[in-house]
Amino acid sequence: MTTGEVLSQSEIDALLAALSTGEISAEELKKEEEGKRVKVYDFKRALRFSKDQIRSLTRIHENLARLLTTFFAAQLRTYVQISVASADQIPYEEFIRSLPKLTFLNVFEVPPLNGHILVEVNPNVAYAMLDRVMGGSGTSVNKVDNLTEIETRIMSNLFDKAFSNLRDAWESVAEIDPVFTNFEVNPQFLQMISPNDTVVVISLNTQIGETSGMMNICIPYIVLEPVMPKLSVHYWMQAQKKESSPEETEALERRIRFAKLPIIVELGTATITIQDFLQLEVGDVIELDQSIQQPLLIKVGNIPKFIGQPGKKNRRLAVQILDTFKGAENYDDE
């Protein structure tokens, strides 16, 4: 088996059987892998997306999976659970070869981006959806080769409405307008791009009632190329600064100028025991620990800001600001 080779189901079963019977041991496979000192690079599998960009695409389609869960649950009136299983970049030819010979393939344009997005729905899942739409219990039967024109139209309309949710899921990177353009059942008839072109395949675990299967979203590099910078971690983490207009700045300054703040002038403080506090009566005098010769502390919003001296203005008690408050040590010295 070579790197990047796609095994058929029969080959996978044969490999598992050989491991279980002892014909091949896991230790031998491990030693064989450890013995390889040369890292194989396949130029047909050119990696055009970084790990950060793949993670960003995964986050986007996790949101899409939640939107699709809500949509199909409302449309089918049954238990629906959709979640992201994996996100990988592979050649388009490898993706096509991994699909069943007959399956449900939906092609979407995503203007203003170039190219097409391909959505493959496993027949088991698709027929469970069709059965629910037609009033059934959600039983799945695989008869893709005998799909009628009415069934084709029903499935096309359902997937067209469902994947309009791509618009909301992608709004953080691009304002797209998904348009359903084609429905096909044979993967070999869909040559959207060159076989060696890189695509990102997002696989969605899908459960409809008692039926489960996969939905695969294939996105070519040409579609994502214009929005590649927005898929980086730097874009997601950077602060989005919005410049205020002169009118907004003036309004903010006006509100600040007329904002009311409490101003407190402390004549002094005192420390007494709980017993003395409980015995206080009207007429008692509490001696403060501050001399009348010391300036008073002025607080603005409970924060020490100035020092001043008491007095009267127009027969009212007042305080005159002497200086700004420079800290406890300087204040005590004064």
Furnish the topology, listing elements before pairings.
Elements: H1 9-21, H2 26-35, H3 51-76, E1 80-91, H4 92-98, E2 104-109, E3 116-121, H5 123-133, H6 149-162, H7 166-169, E4 179-184, E5 198-208, E6 211-220, H8 221-224, H9 233-237, H10 246-257, E7 263-266, H11 274-278, E8 296-300, E9 303-313, E10 316-324, H12 328-333
Antiparallel strand pairs: 1-5, 2-3, 2-4, 3-6, 5-6, 7-8, 8-9, 9-10
Tally of distinct domains: 3
Widest sheet, order of strands: 1-5-6-3-2-4
Overall shape: it is: elongated
**Tally of DSSP β-strands:** 10
Task: Calculate the mean pLDDT score and round it.
Answer: 82
The succession of helices and strands, N to C, reads HHHEHEEHHHEEEHHHEHEEEH
Structure, explained:
With 334 residues, the chain is α+β, with helices and mostly antiparallel strands. The protein folds into 3 domains: 40 residues, no CATH class; 194 residues, 3-Layer(aba) Sandwich (Chemotaxis protein chec); 75 residues, SpoA-like (Surface presentation of antigens (SPOA), Roll). It is built from 12 helices and 10 strands. The strands form 2 sheets. It has a 6-stranded antiparallel beta sheet with strand order 1-5-6-3-2-4. The chain has a 4-stranded antiparallel beta sheet with strand order 7-8-9-10, with no helix packed on it.
What brief labels describe this structure?
6-stranded antiparallel beta sheet; 334 residues; alpha+beta; Flag_FliM; Surface presentation of antigens (SPOA); 3 domains; 4-stranded antiparallel beta sheet
